């Protein structure tokens, strides 16, 4: 099996020499941008959270987080994006969720029995990862590496995309900016996409979040003090120091065609709920 790896600037090159040991350099931003121009796209995906190790071996403090309250949803989901940009996402099972985002606004429903699932972070991540116009824009200046097996029509492309691909939560008020200093923020998005015959088939995204409290945990002076207080050695915290925290992994498979039965059911439910909200 013969593979070749090469680096390309997708914003500048559209093709490379057709040596069998090399793969063409597809204009990935054009592929993302044209996904929903003529018809919608259906996505079958999954999400999994990978927690960072606690280097201090002790208490782990978190204020807020990528998802907010409750346990972050992990599992499968189906999604559809139509040419207008309307996005429907529904979980595979229960407890679960449904998300509508389109010209009628945003609707998010959570279904649970004992404890709610947290989908705020997932919704924010997918608002970037399933916005193909946004993906095209931030992919254009990325440095992509292409790998293709000889005799195969499949090409694997990898790149690191900027954090601003994922929309920031909240506004730009002083209060919001202060709050974000103590909450995990997206540091980067590691992308791996697979093309077949020039069409997008699969994608794997690693959304890497920061851990703003890591330095503070390291700076704890022994962990405990009188009355259960925690002593912090402020000299151990460097200004502007940012460390990696949790990583959220998304796997997606793309196809043309009709939305799944679950998506069609959620579309009907969301239409009723949106109408009730508008009438109320």
Number of beta strands: 13
- Tally of contiguous helical segments: 6
* Unreliably modeled segments: 1-25, 54-68, 230-237
**For the largest beta sheet, what order do the strands appear in spatially?**
1-9-10-11-12-13-2-4-5-6-7
The averaged pLDDT comes out at 78
Global shape: globular
Overall tally of structural domains: 1
Q: What would you note in describing this structure?
A:
It is a single chain. This protein is α+β, with helices and mostly antiparallel strands and 280 residues long. It has one domain. Helix content is 20%, strand content 35%. It is built from 6 helices and 13 strands. It has helices spanning 28-33, 120-129, 132-139, 174-181, 214-218, 261-279; strands spanning 3-9, 41-50, 71-72, 75-81, 87-91, 96-102, 105-111, 117-118, 143-149, 154-162, 186-196, 199-210, 244-255. The strands form 2 sheets. An 11-stranded antiparallel β-sheet has the order 1-9-10-11-12-13-2-4-5-6-7, sandwiched between helices. Strands 3-8 form a two-stranded parallel sheet. β6 (96-102) and β7 form a beta hairpin. The radius of gyration is 21 Å and the shape is globular. The N and C termini lie far apart (63 Å). The model is unreliable at 1-25, 54-68 and 230-237 (pLDDT under 50).
């Amino acid at each position: 099996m013969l593979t070749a790896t090469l680096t390309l600037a997708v914003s500048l090159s559209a093709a490379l020499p057709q040596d069998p040991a090399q793969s063409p350099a597809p204009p990935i931003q054009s592929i993302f941008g044209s996904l929903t121009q003529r018809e919608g796209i259906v996505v079958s995906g999954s999400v999994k959270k990978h927690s960072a190790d606690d280097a201090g071996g002790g208490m782990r403090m978190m204020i807020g987080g990528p998802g907010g309250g409750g346990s972050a949803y992990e599992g499968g989901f189906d999604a559809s994006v139509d040419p207008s940009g309307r996005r429907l996402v529904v979980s595979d099972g229960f407890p679960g969720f449904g998300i509508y985002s389109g010209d009628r606004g945003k609707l998010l429903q959570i279904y649970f029995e004992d404890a709610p699932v947290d989908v705020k972070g997932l919704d924010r991540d997918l608002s970037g990862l399933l916005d193909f116009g946004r993906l095209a824009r931030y992919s254009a200046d990325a440095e992509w590496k292409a790998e293709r097996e000889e005799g195969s029509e499949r090409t694997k492309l990898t790149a690191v995309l900027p954090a601003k691909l994922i929309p920031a939560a909240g506004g730009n008020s002083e209060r919001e900016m202060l709050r974000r200093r103590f909450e995990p923020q997206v540091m980067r998005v590691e992308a791996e996409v697979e093309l077949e015959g020039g069409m997008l088939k699969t994608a794997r995204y690693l959304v890497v979040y920061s851990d703003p409290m890591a330095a503070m945990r390291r700076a704890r002076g022994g962990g405990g003090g009188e009355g259960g207080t925690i002593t912090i050695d402020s000299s151990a915290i460097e200004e502007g120091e940012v460390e990696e925290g949790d990583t959220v992994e998304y796997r997606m498979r793309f196809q043309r065609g009709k939305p799944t039965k679950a998506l069609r059911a959620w579309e009907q439910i969301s239409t009723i709920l949106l109408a009730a909200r508008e009438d109320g």
